[in-house]
Amino acid sequence: MPGIKTQEILVNMGPQHPSTHGVLRLVIKTDGELVTEVTPIVGYLHRCAEKIGENVTYDQWIPYTDRMDYIAAMGNNLGISLAVEKLLGMEAPPRAQVIRVLVCELNRVASHLIAFGTFGLDVGAFTPFLYAWREREMILNLFEMLCGARMTFNYIRIGGISFDIDQKFIDKTKEFIEWFEPRIKEYNDLLTYNRIFVERTAKIGIISPERAISYGLTGPNLRASGVNFDVRKDFPYCGYEKYQFNIPLGRDVPEIGAVTGDCWNRYYVRIEEMIESIKIIKQTLENIPAGEYYDAPKKIKPKAGEVYTRIENARGIVGFYIISDGSEKPVRAKVRAPSFINLSILPEIGKNVLVADLIAILGSIDIVLGEIDR
């Protein structure tokens, strides 16, 4: 209006803000309710996982990888184990390979349940979080039965796994699947197609396929933009090529107004990925070979050389780059952490939106700070 002067102000959102998902600080420049600029400030957690990895033995590094993405820690254990096994020129026994897939897909479901529940919280829906926590507890009970831990497992080891599974674990996993599959419809009725939720997420924070690729996005954030890339399919490991499953992609949904690459699609791809993970889990339970579950030398001491391996974890590609000098410790260690890379697009898609929309955009990226401040 004529005569009214406006002024941009800087606002610190976090790290105490509940919607910043941990110790993340956002410096936002606002003109009223409009965000004109957003800058993520990271570096408060100081996990130092890479530098620690250069100062402990290969075996000793595995528990520290748990602390990066502590919501999907099995994948981190698998990534470092595959990297060192590649350096050693060996593979884990077939039984261990199948069990690795089983536990990683269970952990993917548990991780996506957290994404589902906390995203609901971000946009003002508390009840979905309770539903998500209920099912996640069942998965954590399975992991506790398996290795005694509920969050940071140190279960997948170089050369296999630390403990074998028994028939009781298999039966309990089947019971969980029987309980879980009907819950997806509950989630969709409760949140996915809820009119208020759709209004808060559809056509918000749109990421085009070209932009997603240029920023190096991976995982659900990339596939929600319609890019069909999943390491499990394109560069299979642990026998993933033997399993039948689909890769959910973002798409236009005219009946609710959602478009490819928006917040709603980033949310919904994770819902569909849980369905696909259950398909894989069912196949592993029916095809667990007999035999050894662990086979590795007593002293892990690979030859001098370098290696890079990648796996498809819940938030995208986790990559481990290791340089060996022939000793029991890596001389150089670097981790490609998907949360850190995925967060890099926030300044691009978080400008010229409302403050409330910025919260939805950040929640849809699904970050874990332990992986960012690694």
Number of strands: 9
CATH superfamily: Cytochrome-c3 Hydrogenase, chain B
CATH class: Mainly Alpha
Poorly predicted regions are none
Classify the secondary structure makeup into a structural class: alpha+beta
Using the coordinates shown, work out and report the CATH topology: Cytochrome-c3 Hydrogenase, chain B
The Cα radius of gyration reads 21 Å
Indicate the overall shape: globular
Instruction: Note the beta-strand portion.
Output: 5-15%
How many individual helices? 16
Overall mean confidence score, pLDDT: 95
Q: What gap, in angstroms, lies between the N and C termini?
A: 48 Å
Largest sheet: 4 strands, antiparallel
- Helix-strand pattern: EEEHHHHHEEHHHHHHHEEEHHEHH
Count structural domains.
1
| CATH architecture level-2 label | Orthogonal Bundle
Give the strand line-up of the largest sheet.
Answer: 1-2-3-9
What level of helicity do the residues show?
40-55%
Concise synopsis of the structure shown:
It is built from 16 helices and 9 strands. The protein is α+β, with helices and mostly antiparallel strands and 374 residues long.
